[in-house]
Amino acid sequence: xxxxxxARKNLxxxxxxxxxxxxxxxxxxxxxxxxxxxxxxxxxxxYVYSLDEGKKGRTKLVTKDEYTNTLRAYQNRQDQMKSKExxxxxxxxxxxxxxxxxxxxxRLVENREAFRHVLSEMEEASTGELAGGSVPGS
Length: 138
Prior knowledge:
The protein is mostly helical and 138 residues long. Helices cover 70% and strands 4% of the residues. It contains seven helices and two strands; from the N terminus they run αααββαααα. Helix 3 (37-48) packs antiparallel against helix 4.
């Protein structure tokens, strides 16, 4: 079953309430492999703690192999989400926030035409770099 991480976590919580701990942790494992940090923490707790099953004794809710595989898949997912474009967007937002906070730059923000012009120049420069062309003004 694929779909939303929130839906997957809701299923896990429902199973937990029914005391189907192993099934709940299977849902958390799937969500953690998809990149959900809270689910990874829950899987870790399932690996660290044991469940008292009466005559059977204490058993781990998550095996070492399950935890190791989940941790690797989580890290791979985090690595996949890193990209230059994503970092550029974060940097641009930080720059935009600094411009808005700086009183000397407020006129630029207020003058939308000038700001749009700056944005279009930045966009042309970045598309020129991506296309392998020369960047204007360099």
